[in-house]
Predict the structure.
Amino acid sequence: MRLALLFLVLCALAGPVSAQSLDCTATRYQQPTFATLNVTRDVVYGQNTTMGGMQQTLRMDVYEPQGDALAQRPLIVFAHGGAFVSGDRFDMSWFAYRFAQLGYVTATIDYRLIDIAITDSTQLFEGALRASHDMRAAVRYFREDAATDDRFGIHPDYIYAGGVSAGGVMSLHLAHFDAGDAVPEHIQAILDDLGGFEGDTSDNTQYASSVRGAMNYAGSLIRADWVDANSAPFYSAHDDRDPIVPYGYGTTDAFSFPAFSYGSAAVKQAADAVGVPNQLFTVRNSRSHLSFLFSRDSTAVFSGTIDFMRNLTCPTSTSVEADAPDARPGLSMYPNPAAHVVTVRNASTAPYDVTAYNALGQQVYHATQQRGEVSIPVSDWPAGTYFIAWRSSTPATHHGHERRVAPLVIAR
């Protein structure tokens, strides 16, 4: 069944629907429309106590398309990975920049990390729930802002969650775990200690923390039976032998104790059973974690995510096949990670332009009308995450100027 047909029928089940729709003209939300962004850093969205008893002020960075004339825009709240013990909001800046270029407002959040020595799965789940409470508080912040100061021009009915690894866990919980779900006693005891379903990271709980959809990159869900007909649609990508976050039902190799959860394939199966629109990109026979972000698969994953998100934001847009790989020619590059030179290869003989951006969205390299392979010297680039954008120099028959983006890691 084609996903667009499901969206038209079922999206109302995933969250509130506004009488006012978004501007879906031209290629907004599908192709990069905004070359530059306004970034507001260190926005405080809440405060709470860590597992180690420390008070933490929670901050986020907000990315807005510069020169955007729309009064209300869709929002994606991104959370980083790191097994709930490491990472920060800057890790997701390249995601935030990429989707803000399409016309979304994006935010990258810090959340409470586990700051004690954890010895069992209950403590790990507590850390995941604390982090999810923080993400809920970030969503509520924007809904409150839309109803009061309107600082960021957010449409309150078009808020999404996205994340990598631990951030994917958080995104899946915002999409599927709601106050009406049955909760095991040991999880309920944790929730009771943390301020209930919404938590107490902020006191604006009169605003909803639900999301219209989710982007899940190698995340998992504590309970698969939390997926029901009221769950939000979601896009997932996962390595099928992932040792860090299980692909199906399983545990993790990241800790010395077993911590079972339901990975992307298991969550998809539960969603399919109740008719929740979703799409899963699987990397077959891969024992890596998040390999699809650092290989040629990234072109298909980003393209699939963009199409899926646009269908949620603009339900009448062109449909995509569930689980269909992107067969259009795209970008490949090697080595990745790189230290001195990275080679970009076009899969076809058509001319193309190639541009590199750092994590702040600043252009660090550009070449036009290239063919075949291009060698880019990167010796002078500081270590970190970049992304390479490939764009065909001539329009394709029915896709316009085809464009692909893939992350590149510079390691020393």
